[in-house]
Design brief:
By secondary structure, the chain is an alpha/beta fold. It folds into 2 domains: 2-263, Rossmann fold; 286-349, Beta-grasp domain (Ubiquitin-like (UB roll)), CATH 3.10.20. Helix content is 39%, strand content 20%. The chain has helices at 13-21, 48-56, 86-92, 115-146, 153-167, 182-185, 211-214, 226-233, 237-247, 253-265, 289-296, 298-302, 312-318, 321-326, and strands spanning 2-6, 38-43, 60-62, 65-70, 97-103, 195-200, 221-224, 267-273, 277-284, 304-311, 331-333, 343-349. Strand 8 and strand 9 (277-284) form a beta hairpin. The two termini are 28 Å apart. It binds guanosine-5'-triphosphate and magnesium ion (MG).
Length: 351
């Protein structure tokens, strides 16, 4: 899973990126930071792998990973006729979801926090960027039509609906099922991407959040003390645990954000395991066994026969796979089976 960190200049994107990844990328001191994306991979904490590894003693244990991209550069203003920076778009288009960092601390250059205004400014940028893409494409289709090229009515219809939503100043994510429309997939619309807010709180006293944010009506949100979490994340683990205990924190933001993003984005984990490797995989809720096989290896999808499935809980309570089988807890499932969180799966395939 790839998560893109976005937000206005100076809201703490790089600070948050460092907090979430333990990196030491340069934060901007009073002036915009050098552009260019920061990238880092983080392992998804997965306690269930410990049991599987004890059971199968594999040579290798592989966690799922989350890749964070901190792009910076959300400065071009589409409403002034400028397009969002190429570099921003190139790096943000391929991500699966957006983490919108919202400043709730006083900034020496940007002044007092105004989270609601900041949220709508960024939202507007995303909407305008998408509108520009839609209009350009429709214009292109119209030109080609004049030259006698036949259009795809499905594409024109879908783009028209998008245009309507965007012109009403709504993000495309407000349209249910938007990500599942095949003809729109190639556009990688920014405002269609799932998004959650990461409210960047100060270390000092916290200014209360406006009700529309704290109530969650604007979308899912999490709070983080970016500066503090960045410092904690850069300490050796035993020292950071000590500080956390002192401050009464039981989990680092790094873990909280990943756990919550699985929830917000409707992601689940399944496992594969053998003597070589025990491994966790990330899929969307509702993914079929056939598609899950494809996540592991394209051959497994192509030559799919059956999925041998046992839920993690059943396997754990039975203690061994053989025991789970004896108790009838191991099922043979077909292509259409919807993979559940915690399923341990052995794909049977033939190519
Ligand atoms: N008081 C306070 N300052 C913070 C916090 N987070 C970031 N800052 C400061 O705000 C400034 C900008 O932080 P960055 O993390 O570089 O912000 P950015 O969003 O990456 O900035 P650009 O890349 O320029 O858009 C730095 O001086 C940080 O020290 C915070 O939680 N509290
Ligand atoms: Mg930055």
């Amino acid at each position: 899973m790839r998560l893109g960190i976005i937000g206005l200049p100076g809201c703490g994107k790089t600070t948050v990126f460092n907090a979430l990844t333990g990196s030491t990328a340069q934060v901007a001191d009073f002036s915009p930071a050098a552009r260019g994306p920061n990238l880092a991979m983080v392992k998804v904490p997965e306690p269930r792998l410990a049991f599987l590894s004890q059971l199968y003693k594999p040579k290798k244990v592989t966690e799922a990973t989350v890749e964070y991209v901190d792009v910076g550069g959300l400065t071009g203003s589409t409403d002034k006729g400028q397009e969002l920076g190429e570099s921003f778009l190139n790096h943000i288009r391929p991500v699966d979801a957006l983490v919108h960092v919202v400043r709730n601390f006083h900034h020496p250059m940007h002044g007092a926090p105004d989270p609601s205004a900041d949220i709508s400014r960024v939202e507007t940028e995303l909407i305008l960027a998408d509108l520009l893409v839609v209009e350009k494409r429709l214009q292109r289709i119209a030109e080609e039509r004049k030259r006698g090229k036949k259009e795809d009515p499905e594409e024109v219809k879908e783009l028209g609906q998008c245009q309507e939503i965007l012109e009403a100043s709504s993000p495309l994510r407000s349209r249910p099922g938007i990500l599942e429309i095949p003809i729109l997939r190639g556009f990688s619309f920014l405002s269609a991407k799932p998004l959650f807010y990461l409210i960047n709180q100060p270390e000092e006293e916290v200014s209360p959040l406006p009700a529309e944010i704290s109530s969650g009506t604007m979308g899912p949100q999490l709070e983080i003390v970016g500066q503090l979490e960045m410092e904690l994340g850069q300490l050796p683990p035993d020292e950071s645990l000590e500080f956390m205990a002192e401050m009464g924190l039981d989990k680092l933001a790094r873990d909280r954000v990943i756990t919550s993003s699985y929830q917000f984005l409707g992601l689940v984990s399944f496992f594969t395991t053998n003597e070589q490797e025990a491994r966790a995989w990330t899929i969307r809720q509702g993914t079929t066994a056939l598609k899950a096989a494809g996540v592991v290896h394209s051959d497994m999808e192509r030559g799919f026969i059956r999925a041998e499935v046992v839920s993690f809980k059943d396997l754990e309570s039975a203690s061994t796979y053989a025991e789970a089988q004896k108790k009838g807890l191991v099922r043979l499932e077909g292509k259409e089976y919807i993979v559940q969180d915690g399923d341990v799966i052995f794909f049977r395939f033939n190519i």
